[in-house]
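Protocol step 6 of 9: fold each sequence in the batch and record its structure tokens directly after the sequence line. For illustration, a two-sequence batch is reproduced in full.

Sequence one:
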Amino acid sequence: STLIDVLTGMTEATSGQMFINNAPVKVHAMHEMAQYDIYRTFQNPRIYDELSAPENMIIGKFISQRLSLLQKLLIPKSVDVHDLKDLCDVANRFAIHNILDTPSCDFSPGQRKIIELSRISMAMPRILFIDEPTSGCSPEEKEKIRSMLLKLRAEGTGLFIVDHDKNFVNEIADYIYYICSAKIERGHNKT
């Protein structure tokens, strides 16, 4: 989790540099990652309980803009037909219609993660950092998240997953790395 925080600008790095396609990336705040089409999810999803599931998802279309909480809450009131089409496309792609009518405040921990992942996918990320995607999830929710991540990966999104569930990560990742004694070590390569 700390590594994701550093790579996404939530925590300032004391040394080192990040490169994307051999170009240095300087990030001092999380919102700056959007200019590179890089986003993240959180171990504890950041869902707005006062918004519906579709309203929470539509915010993903605007996530690259630095907006106040009030502005984010007003976004669902100002969407156009293209935004709604994109929302329907995401709901269809991930087969999440069964939870769209559930009030956000009633979501289980896994449903919150599913909606957060759906919201991020609305931004069409090139790279997605995912922190503990299945912690607190039921087996069904875990399977749904696995399916969503595999679809994102198949569509070309690079996934950087931090998780303690090695079996889950092995099902998704091509390359596995471990952090051991403050050093990054390469594990196995599935291909």
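Sequence two, same batch, same settings:
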Amino acid sequence: VHEIDASLLEGLWQQDKRAEIVRAGIADANAPEFGDLDDEEGFSLDVRFTLPTMGHHVLIDLRGVDGKGLLLTFENDTLELKATTDKQETAWACDPGLFQAGQKHHAVITADGGPGILSWIVDGILCDGVHQRVRGWQRFRVPTNKQSTLGEAARIASGKRLKTGASVHQARIYTRALRTSEAISNYRSGR
């Protein structure tokens, strides 16, 4: 028998009612720190934006002048998170076909270092892979390997000033992995 944290259950039961910004874990945008993914911590990127066109757009840029760090873009009808380190560049994308030009959208990208999973919540809905994949979440590291490109890129991005694209209305970085219910609450807040 495993005891379940009561706040997890309360979050699930209140998911359709809660509409407030989650404050716990918001990082300083001028020098954000990320949870250590390779030590089973996590982080979340929360962004509200309107795409003027369906072309390429930079939403969040947490890279240094050398191009290393984290970059969130819109291209090819999807959001893409790129992690660049000395050794490699790796990218993950959410479900395609969820966005329209001229409409306000909200996305939360959560990296949970415990299971090594990256999940996407777009406009209050957890991505499920639609017809492209069997699931909406993706692994960012092999379970037998504690080191990950995303973890290293997040360490590089720590302390970098948050830069956002012109189409971004609001962006937040969380120093922990948001629960799906918390991401939905942020979306429902409309702020």
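Proceed to step 7 once all outputs are recorded. Observation for sequence two: The mean pLDDT is 89.
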